[in-house]
Amino acid sequence: MPVTYSQFLAFIATSLREENGLDLAHLVRPLSTHAKDLVKEFRNPTRQSLSRYEGAVESPWDEIAIQYVLVVTHIAKQRYNDAFKEHTQLVNLFLRFFTNNSGWTLPVLFAILRDLRDLAFDADVQARDVSQKSDCMEESARIISKAFSGCVTDRTSSYEMSRKWGVYYIVGLILKSYFRVRRISLSKNVLRALEANRDIPPLHEYPRAHQVTYRYYLGMLSFLNEDYAKSEQELTHAFYNCHLEARSNQERILTYLVPLRILRGHLPSEELLGRFPILSELYSPFVAAIHNGDIQGFDNALDKHERRLVDLNVWLTLEKAREICIRGLFRRVWVASEKTNRIPVAMFHGSLRISGMDVSPEEAECLVANMIYKGYMRGYISHEKQMVVLANTNAFPRLADRPTPFTLY
Predict the structure, then answer these.
(1) What are phi and psi of 61, to 5 degrees?
(2) Contact, 206 vs 168, CB < 8 A?
């Protein structure tokens, strides 16, 4: 049976009376089944033509219902910029209601803010297709920030029904929006605001999905700031708590976690990469080159995937892992020398030439010195005798055992 606008208003009134946030969230979703019925009922609705319904339900829900009809009509006609503008007004109307109610309204807030972000993205894409400028996504981030304030300022609701339980979901939406429009520097503002409000519940008490999203973006911000230790910690936590069925989210996390683990000397297994073919194609050549000490293979992989790695912001991180490949080559020289602790510099020079590096003996000696300085090898160089003297024990420490591997990059 088609849903009429009068029935739609009655459903809203019932949900409000029962404080049923989930049903109310369903009612204001543009993709809900009743949206098509309302589009058919009002062929070309305007705010003026719908004004006769004002007061049919409690304020501001009478106005929210009118805005909803305008939004779904614009979406049906693929006028995404207009739909975004009308939905913006819907969100602002709801925020007036939200700040005077408790946490039962959070499902509605989550739904309309998610739709706001999606409409902003569609509007920007549509404008870009016709060579027009659009900043809907940035505008959506500003509006979502208002909802953040509405969550953290709850001082009257009980602990269980506090609006503060929406804080990390809202922060996740804001960070997604900033990353989408490449205004990542603005993320610091919301993180500072989060740190300033110390009376919100601990992160581990929030739904796991909220935790994973927040930790992912925290890890990404640390990654881009080259704070690799913190980034690895946050991304690892996000990966191990990510839902098993959320393959795309796992892949997104591993895109940045794998290079960080490689820098630590933890190479991903074939089984792990096999579960994600796109990542396997991207990272398997580097893993194989490090296993074999194949510097030329490593460099070829960097050249082949350069465009993709730059787009993902991981080219520099993987380029730093080249030293691990050199360490693997030098270790093979040590093994080939029957693990003696005195090896001529010329042998390391020869191995570099065989591996495709056209370097002078002086450059080879410099590379060996660099390996010793950074903890990849233990020993010293006798420059006068052109001899590398390695430690009798643990000449090539395990990569994972280096005390602070990230600080050396």
Answers:
(1) -70, -25
(2) yes
